[in-house]
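just leaving the lab so this will be short. below you get a single protein, a line of residues and a line of whole numbers that encode the local backbone shape. id like you to explain what the token line says about the fold, in plain words if possible. thanks a lot i owe you, the record is right below:

…
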Amino acid sequence: MVFIGAVQAVVTATGFDRDPTLAELDAIECEMPLISAEVELLDVQIMLLDRSATELDERRLRRARNRVLAARRDLTNRAGSGSPEVA
């Protein structure tokens, strides 16, 4: 078996071989409620792939969608609150 690797330094960029900065970690932490809501919605959708939805399943799906919308709204409002208002 022949090992194939990058021989040139230009091919293997070291700029991407770093840990996230504090600003990036803060942005991820700020978006965690939305990420969690989207994961929950995905879980419900995966659960419903191989079976028909019951009334309880439809309720779970609707609540998961509403949580995603609420998280997006909160994230958008939080991001918009830092900008000055136009009179």
